[in-house]
Specification:
disordered N terminus, 3 helices, 3 strands, 84 residues
């Protein structure tokens, strides 16, 4: 989600037919969590790419892809490679 802050007052931001893909190295990025929460309220399908143990993000999404690694550089490289 390329959103710095989710505008929860904008109902046209995401719809039920959409797929929201969240990317967070730690799975704990507040702006990404907010985006996924809004996506779930709007009944969009949610997928995440995260590292470490997936953080809170994996609890919120329907499909979680987690790089179980505690090295930030390796996590970022793995997420970038799998997202292309």
């Amino acid at each position: 989600m390329a959103l710095s802050r989710v505008d929860t007052g904008n109902p046209g931001l995401i719809e039920a037919e959409d797929i929201a893909i969240a990317i967070s190295g730690s799975g704990s990025s507040v702006n990404v969590l907010d985006g996924v929460k809004l996506s779930r309220v709007k009944e969009a399908t949610t997928i995440d790419f995260s590292g470490f143990d997936g953080g809170k993000l994996t609890e919120l999404v329907e499909i979680a892809v987690v790089v179980f690694c505690h090295d930030s550089a390796q996590v970022q490289e793995s997420i970038a490679s799998s997202s292309m």
